[in-house]
Amino acid sequence: MLNLIRNHFGASAVDALSTAAIMELPHIVDEIVNWIPSVNYNSSDKLLSVFETTIRYLGGMVSGYDLLTGPLSHVPSNASAVQALLTQSVNLAEALKYAFDTPTGIAHHSLFLDKHGYNDGFTNSVASMGSVQIEWQRLSDLTGNPEYGNLVHKSASYLLNPKSEVWPGLIGSHLDFRTGEFTDSDGGWGAGADSFYEYLLKMYVYDSTRYGNYRDRWIVAADSTMKHLLGRSPKKPGLAFLMSYQNQTVHQSSGHLNCYAGGNFILGGQVFNRQDYVNFGLHLVDGCHATYNATLTGLGPESFGWDPDFVPAHQKDFYEKYGFYIDSSYYVLRPEVIESYYYAYRATGNEIYRDWAWGAFVALERTCRANNGFSAITDVNAEGGGQSMRNQESFLFAEVLKYSYMIQRPVLTSVGFQP
Predict the structure, then answer these.
(1) Positions marked catalytic
(2) d(Cα 53, Cα 56) in Å, to the nearest integer?
(3) Which of 268, 274, 345, 384 is spaced 20 to 30 A from 369 at the CA atom?
């Protein structure tokens, strides 16, 4: 379980903590909680992503602390040991915060902690800048030290008040941290920008009094997305996907990462009492389900398209039957589709989303199970998934297993998991 990856800080363990807590597994929670204080977050000779380190480690420890000192305080056998989660969160933030020492306050993308150095050129991605606010702000709120939140909000200010937009609310994917200006006009709800739009909504959900500006930006982005980025397959017009863009040229392609958007729209519709957002999100969920339902493994590909001018010759029959073709066939244990099933089920109560989630979990168990855990696979449309990639990302524990569990059990209202 304590697989030392991601700078040898034990990503699998830390990312699994909140899931183990929600499942009320005291022996696993105890093992992780007792192990985390042994990690030295000030030392790593490997290149470190500020974004990945924040969402996996800082997010894992802060969320674990909140759960285990709050509604799930009965789970750990040693309540005093849980305090080390907050201590270690502070230690990690202190080790990382020099990343924000730039002319604009936009963080460097990558660090060498041992050298107190950088290795990332002069740009950072929108996802990396805009998907760390909850973790750092929550740490400020828990410790009473405003510095952590101030750092990430200054960095994010260039996204909340951008110098340029492609459409209202929709922006490029990379900024120059020397100037705060965008270096491209490429974007969408996929890699490079994806979780920025997710965090706009969730910052407002976290504290609607302080973060009304995040709400406003999400609504503008959501409205532009519905207007400009909805894609439909010529062969299966009922399928709805989100397109990517370059400037204002859209591309009939999408991917697994984009599939979180269905759940995000559903949540936004519930928060703002907007049935049009909920309906749009449900259509996106249906489209992403279709990418699972079409393959031999029952798992969805990393990326796919539906442009009739770019159908690969060997996939013409597949395209005619299912309305899309596979661009990248691998599956790296991503959670976005099951995540959106969860939101769809909680919003509608329709049992079909539970069935879809269970089907995805069975496919995962059947295709990706390895001797000691699970493995990414090379081809979702080959018998047995093609080849094992011999890699297990920690978000399997933090998200795939969490959503797979939560959608099947009664609503955990005391823990705050009902949108």
Answers:
(1) 302
(2) 5
(3) 345
